[in-house]
Design goal:
This protein is mostly helical. It has 7 helices and no strands. Helices cover 83% and strands 0% of the residues.
Length: 199
């Protein structure tokens, strides 16, 4: 029992990343199931979407509660979230589940954040912490698009409007944080080396 008690914290450290990788592995399964059922009552694809959404909340909760936050998880989790949404919304537009004009702002927000993340990581100028409000926006959006897939639009549209507004708002917060991180990194380096700022 003592050995198990010592091993449990080490085992838990791998759970959040395992859930993230599982969510990524669900992507091709989701595309196959949805392509098979769309544009009809795609309840199997909706269940998979909702399950992936709960796993997204679970991995963040476990990482924070058990201090299992890793650098890999900080990079991988938002990338998998973006990949899942971009793939799902692409399928919705292709099969006519949602109009392109409703999908465009959300997809544009994700593309912008992917580019900003790539620039930030490539320049090695720090990192941006995941916003909890962004997680909740993703959660609400995922439930809304799940309702779109099963044709319950009187629930899907209000959820999508609320989730989409929160999603765009957190996107703006992320962009502000990216710019702050880009400015803060050189200043921190100058302070640590004692070099004055060049004119």
């Amino acid at each position: 029992m003592r050995l198990f008690g010592r091993l449990l914290p080490e085992m838990i450290r791998y759970v959040p990343n395992a859930l993230t990788l599982f969510r990524f592995a669900c992507l091709p399964v989701f595309v196959w199931i949805y392509g098979w059922q769309a544009p009809g009552f795609a309840w199997k694809a909706a269940l998979l979407m909702w399950f992936a959404t709960w796993s997204d909340l679970a991995d963040g909760y476990i990482a924070r509660k058990y201090n299992a936050v890793t650098r890999l998880g900080q990079v991988l989790d938002p990338l998998v979230d973006r990949a899942f949404f971009l793939t799902a919304f692409g399928a919705y537009v292709y099969y006519g589940t949602m109009p392109w004009w409703a999908v465009a702002p959300v997809v544009g927000r994700d593309v912008l954040l992917i580019v900003a993340s790539a620039v930030l990581v490539g320049s090695r100028r720090g990192e941006v912490q995941v916003l909890r409000s962004g997680k909740w926006a993703t959660f609400v959006l995922a439930w809304s698009v799940g309702f779109f897939m099963i044709g319950v639009r009187f629930i899907a549209w209000p959820l999508y409007i609320v989730g989409g507004a929160l999603y765009l708002y957190t996107g703006c917060l992320y962009v502000v944080r990216y710019f702050r991180a880009r400015r803060a990194r050189p200043a921190a380096l100058r302070a640590s080396t004692g070099r004055p700022r060049s004119a």
